[in-house]
């Protein structure tokens, strides 16, 4: 017997006044299959909650104390208007519901180190939440950062930030806001959008910059973490060639985003794209040979000479000399904060991280008792 099932479902939840699901099936069904079909539709109705909202904008602030939105910052020029693109981006994607601007000491150290070693670059610290100065107490860390003339603090609306980019419609599917790792994956997306729109560098908030980025003498580069991985904790893309690479990276997010895998949209996405550009999956070959068109893959010792599983070397006195020796020629160092955020430090501890802080983020160190 031929069964034709036409089901139309309407939902008014989450402002969806005319959501219609129509299933046209011109197939032969057994009674069991009909039951399965009906149950599936009932479950879909029960558990479909409409598109996920922008989780960072559940609370909107209109009290005049909010940071300026990124789009209003006149220092941000479209990539084609500033081919040198001396921009350095940091993205803070924690969900900050009280609207109070805050950064911890290690985050501030990352930002200050970039400003200190790159005084000719504009530093943009972008908050995904609508934060501002709503705290009546003192903010010594923020004051320390704002003493640098090249540091800018802004907030952005993730959905709006994607407008006029290849991710404009993708953002509206809400795959990002339904991610199992929203903060991590939002940071993965925002760094690529910033580089696509403006060019420059993205740096994670658990990196200490030790040299000027200009010292590399290359338009586009990132660092190898392992022999099969290029990490996206730091990426530098400028000029037309950098924009083309950024476009490929954005396309990788659009076509292959996975909200269930922590690293899929970050270092693995960058490695996948570079494998195609370089014609090899062997990251060691990428670092040794000029095979990646206009992209340079820096050797492991330049950015990630202390690996994630060695991260305690930054925090234990017994490893002090060995750690500093291994970092002698590094452009920057990744602290791997996700592995050690709960390890307490004071400004007087005789460990490698505090030694780095004394040299590369002295104002932050002075403003904080604990790290």
TrEMBL record:
Protein location: Golgi apparatus membrane
Keyword Glycosyltransferase: yes
Pfam families reported in the protein's UniProt record: Gb3_synth, Gly_transf_sug
Topology relative to the membrane: Single-pass type II membrane protein
Protein's GO biological process: glycosphingolipid biosynthetic process
Lineage top rank: taxon: Eukaryota
Keywords annotated in UniProt: Glycosyltransferase, Golgi apparatus, Membrane, Transferase
Domain Alpha 1,4-glycosyltransferase: 240-367
MF-aspect GO terms: alpha-1,4-N-acetylgalactosaminyltransferase activity
Example of a GO cellular component annotation carried by this entry: Golgi membrane
Protein family: Belongs to the glycosyltransferase 32 family.
Name of the molecule in the record: Alpha 1,4-glycosyltransferase domain-containing protein
Organism of provenance: Chironomus riparius
Lineage of the species this protein comes from: Eukaryota, Metazoa, Ecdysozoa, Arthropoda, Hexapoda
């Amino acid at each position: 017997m031929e069964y034709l099932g036409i089901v139309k479902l309407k939902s008014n939840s989450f402002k969806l006044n005319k959501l219609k699901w129509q299933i046209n099936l011109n197939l032969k069904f057994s009674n069991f299959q009909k039951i399965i079909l009906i149950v599936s539709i009932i479950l879909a109705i029960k558990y479909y909650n409409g598109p996920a909202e922008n989780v960072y904008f559940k609370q909107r602030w209109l009290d005049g104390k909010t940071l300026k939105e990124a789009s209003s910052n006149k220092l941000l020029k479209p990539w084609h208007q500033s081919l040198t693109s001396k921009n350095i981006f940091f993205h803070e994607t924690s969900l900050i519901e009280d609207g109070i601007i805050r950064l911890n000491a290690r985050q501030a150290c990352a930002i200050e180190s970039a400003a200190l070693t790159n005084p000719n670059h504009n530093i943009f610290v972008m908050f995904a939440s609508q934060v501002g100065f709503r705290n009546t107490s003192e903010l010594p860390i923020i004051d320390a950062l704002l003493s640098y003339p090249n540091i800018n603090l802004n907030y952005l609306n993730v959905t709006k930030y994607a407008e006029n980019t290849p991710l404009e419609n993708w953002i509206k599917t809400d795959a990002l806001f339904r991610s199992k790792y929203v903060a991590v994956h939002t940071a993965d997306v925002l760094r690529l959008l910033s580089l696509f729109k403006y060019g420059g560098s993205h740096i994670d908030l658990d990196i200490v910059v030790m040299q000027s980025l200009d010292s590399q003498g290359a338009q586009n580069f990132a660092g190898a973490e392992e022999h099969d991985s290029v990490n996206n904790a730091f990426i530098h893309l400028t000029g037309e060639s950098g924009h083309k690479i950024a476009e490929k990276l954005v396309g990788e997010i659009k076509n292959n985003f996975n909200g269930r895998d922590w690293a899929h949209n970050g270092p693995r996405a960058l490695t996948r794209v570079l494998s195609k550009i370089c014609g090899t999956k062997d990251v060691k070959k990428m670092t040794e040979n000029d095979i990646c068109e206009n992209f340079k893959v820096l050797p492991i010792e330049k950015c990630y000479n202390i690996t994630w599983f060695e991260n305690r070397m930054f925090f234990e006195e017994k490893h002090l000399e060995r750690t500093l020796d291994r970092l002698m020629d590094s452009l920057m160092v990744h602290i791997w904060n996700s592995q050690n955020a709960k390890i307490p430090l004071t400004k007087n501890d005789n460990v490698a991280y505090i030694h780095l802080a004394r040299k590369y983020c002295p104002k932050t160190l002075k403003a904080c008792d604990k790290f």
